[in-house]
UniProtKB/TrEMBL annotation:
Enzyme Commission code: 4.2.1.75
Function (record text): Catalyzes cyclization of the linear tetrapyrrole, hydroxymethylbilane, to the macrocyclic uroporphyrinogen III.
Involved pathway(s): Porphyrin-containing compound metabolism; protoporphyrin-IX biosynthesis; coproporphyrinogen-III from 5-aminolevulinate: step 3/4
Ranges where the Tetrapyrrole biosynthesis uroporphyrinogen III synthase domain occurs: 19-224
Highest taxon listed in the record's lineage: Bacteria
Entry-linked SUPFAM superfamilies: HemD-like
Natural source organism: Eikenella glucosivorans
Keyword Lyase among UniProt keywords: yes
Name of the protein this chain belongs to: Uroporphyrinogen-III synthase
Pfam families: HEM4 (PF02602)
Length: 249
């Protein structure tokens, strides 16, 4: 049985772990990054002081954790206040960085799930919350926390910069499926596709882990979308699909 090929439409730092997962599941990974993470030096310079003043810190993504630690030489993990993780991948990045007091939603991986945490009721009104994120992030979380009476500061410590897709890689790989983890990357992907490859791109099986991503894929014309409850389900989903591999067109 030939090995099916999976496009990894992920930031570069996420690709090695996902590639290993693909191989375990019997798939051939093909890195296909569409964005790169660029640190914001000014925001990073003020981050240690902001963290020390915060009653709790919210981390939006693994990229936020990695960018902060790379700039601060790993010196942030001694802080003892609660570290709120948006998603299991972010929580794992915090654990690997040495943080101990980590809180994350048990059944969700977005701002809505973080806002639903009962833990917020333990904080006094007026407590300072620091949100560490990339530039141009969603306003939902800071706006909602402000409405609850918290003082909210945002540290926009990195930018997501687009990368021109290497369509020669796509053509050579003949992918059967793709793993994509943000609606932003869906828009970048379909906006850049050459007309000669558009139908093939739309025909792939897409694995996505959030309804917003699935909706963006559907709006872009993707015909086959497998919506997972979380990124942790990807390996089992790939194994199941491997038993009946999709056919590239």
């Amino acid at each position: 049985m030939p090995t099916p090929t999976l496009l990894l439409i992920r930031p570069a730092a996420r690709i090695p772990a996902d590639a290993a997962l693909c191989r375990r599941a019997g798939w051939q990974p093909v890195p296909f990054p569409l964005i790169r993470i660029a640190a914001e030096p000014t925001a990073l310079a003020g981050l240690p002081a902001q963290m020390q003043q915060a009653a709790a810190v919210v981390w939006i993504s693994p990229s936020a954790v990695e960018t902060a630690l790379s700039a601060c030489s790993g010196s942030l993990s001694h802080l003892t206040q609660p570290q709120i993780a948006v998603g299991g991948g972010t929580a794992q990045a915090l654990r690997q960085a040495g943080f101990a007091n980590i809180i994350s939603p048990p059944g969700g991986h977005d701002s809505e799930a973080v806002l639903a945490l009962p833990w917020w009721h333990t904080l006094g009104k007026g407590s300072c919350i620091l949100i560490i994120r990339g530039a141009h992030g969603r306003h939902l979380l800071p706006d909602a926390l402000c409405q609850r009476g918290f003082q909210v500061a945002c540290a926009d410590i990195y930018q997501r910069l687009p990368i021109e897709p290497d369509w020669a890689v796509f053509h050579t790989a003949q992918p059967a499926a793709a793993w994509i983890t943000s609606a932003e990357q869906v828009r970048l992907l379909f906006a850049a596709v050459p007309a000669s490859l558009a139908q093939r791109l739309q025909s792939l099986l897409y694995f996505a882990h959030h309804p917003r991503i699935a909706q963006a894929l559907s709006q872009a014309g993707a015909a086959r979308i497998r919506l997972l409850d979380s990124a942790a389900e990807l390996e089992s989903a790939l194994i199941a699909e491997r038993q009946n591999p999709p056919q590239a067109t």
